[in-house]
User: What shape does this take?
Amino acid sequence: MGREGVAQSSTSAAPVGPSPVPVTPAAPSRDVTSRDVTGLIAELGLTEDHAAEPTALVTPGDLLRAAQALKDHGFMLMDTVGIDYSTYTEPRPKRFAVLHNIYHPRDHRRVFLRVWLDDGEMLPSLYPIWRAANYLEREVYDLMGVTFTGHPDLRKVLTPDDLEGHPLRKDFPLGETPTLFREGRHLDPAAFRAGLTGRDAGLTGYRGELRRGRGEDRLPPVMPEGGPK
Assistant: This one.
């Protein structure tokens, strides 16, 4: 092929394909406003409980119905917390409150579902509606002692199996129970407090004898003070 043929082929126009289809922007969805959330709370027959963020008072019997309605409107479960009000001076309906933080990821709206409970009362699990409830409810069960019925695997998630009590309850003996670390030594409460208050800056509480009892055979050897020699 001659030079003219090469030049002709190099300057030939590229094949023209079909014109791109213009993309029509989707119509903006109707925002879920605070008024909408408040209206939904009223529609469900619930009582609004807080002015800053829409918060609904829910009985244990109404919790699943309210949660399902919120999910149907695009909300998702973000967090679940438990609060022990037993030492608060202001009167409260019951000792405990479980607060579900429900969020709309598209419209950035939030609603809280608050349930009041007395010691020993149980609450239906939100796991059948939101799988995120799994570890959230296990944490509240572990630290506050609230039982969630219908949870598929309700057991401790943070504290040792042999720890008695629930550390976030106001009646838990804070600082008076020696804590076992995996290395096999106790956290001595008196030494720890002395280190925190500055009475003996060298004390961190990481002292004590090897624990005797459950799991001792699984504990690694105790490292001598000052590190390996």
In short: Confidence is low (pLDDT under 50) at residues 23-32, 200-220. Residues 188 and 223 are 17 Å apart (CA to CA).
